[in-house]
Structure prediction request, 103 residues.
Amino acid sequence: MFLELSTASIIFAVRVAIDEIPDRTLFGSDAPYGDPVLARATIERVTALGPRRDQVLGGTLATSSAADDSGQRRALRLLDPNQNIQSCRGSRERHLATADRRS
Prediction:
């Protein structure tokens, strides 16, 4: 069983989850309804730069026996902060553009 962090709205809860079960904790943002950049910033705020942060931002999924090849590739992309932030911004902009067209 894994703990995915997209619904954690209290930064203390994210910190405790990562401290207690880092090998079972997964980054999540609830995109397109949640903000992936904000979700990633939360993880970065409560973890120091290094292996624990990398583990939560994609390493756990990449090493999980439950992940298929596409899941592993996605998890490894999450470890590249520049690509991930650009991808998140693009997703959010596409979502907002779609919402504008509907209204």
Q: What stands out?
A: Residues 81-102 form the longest helix (22 residues).
